[in-house]
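Quick one: structure tokens for this chain, please?
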Amino acid sequence: MRHPHSLQGIRILSLALNLPGPAALQRCQEMGAICTKIEPPTADGSSGDPMALYSPAAYQALHQGIRILQAHLKTTEGLHKLQHELQTTDVLLTSFRPSALHKLGLDWAALHARYPRLCMVRILGDARPEAADLPGHDLTYQAEAGLVHPGHMPTSLHADMAGALCASEALLQTLVEREHTGIGALRDVGLAQAAQWLAHPLHWGLTTPDGDVGGAHAGYRVYATADGHVAVAALEPHFAQRLCAAAGIDCDGQAIHMRSPALHTQLATFLRHTAGTDLKRIAAERDIPLHVLSSHAK
């Protein structure tokens, strides 16, 4: 059940550019917050967020319902515009390095002294103090977490999107803390730490080739079909038993049997000779979790 007005009346001001900040701000806007974003000015009045240049579609999707202002924060005029907004802001969201925030007079000590009820969430590349000013991007944070395979690019910007989730969570934490103390609170969110959180299943061995959700369990893997591929997720014994029954295999669905090389071969043979449309029908009739990835059938 959704609660779209959880943040109704809360005013959030974002200085965060690129993906994580706008994605976090969008989530807060969907929860009812009044969201404003300050971007660098441009000569033609277009967005100064780099994402608007390299992915206009993503920029548009993430800024629906967001009030956009332009200000050069290194100028007196720009700082005055920011200070005017901060007077009525509940939470400030940033994505600058700590050293850059300090140069702008936006370090936490200075802000907290001037706006004692203001909360702040800082999205950093790495939340460790000794690494907070080091450069990086989603790709480097994923690589450090072990999520990048040599020779392959990641399928999504996992560190950025996980960082956005962590930032929206941190924002809620600051508001809860302010409710208890009466003064603003600070939270730091590291994209490196967000990537490392996503990588836990890998390091626990769940998604390695010998893990049940990494390919060792015959009921949980991607198979070729007669006209494409299918992702099968019959992990629990009752699902595995239904999958085996559908394939005409005598199997009680227990995990030890689902790791059998012979069973892998039997399921692969059945699926390789079954069309995607037939698999969808079988899944619906027998309540088996699967998704046809591709089908060449007309």
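The domain at 212-295 is CATH 3.30.1540.10 (formyl-coa transferase, domain 3).
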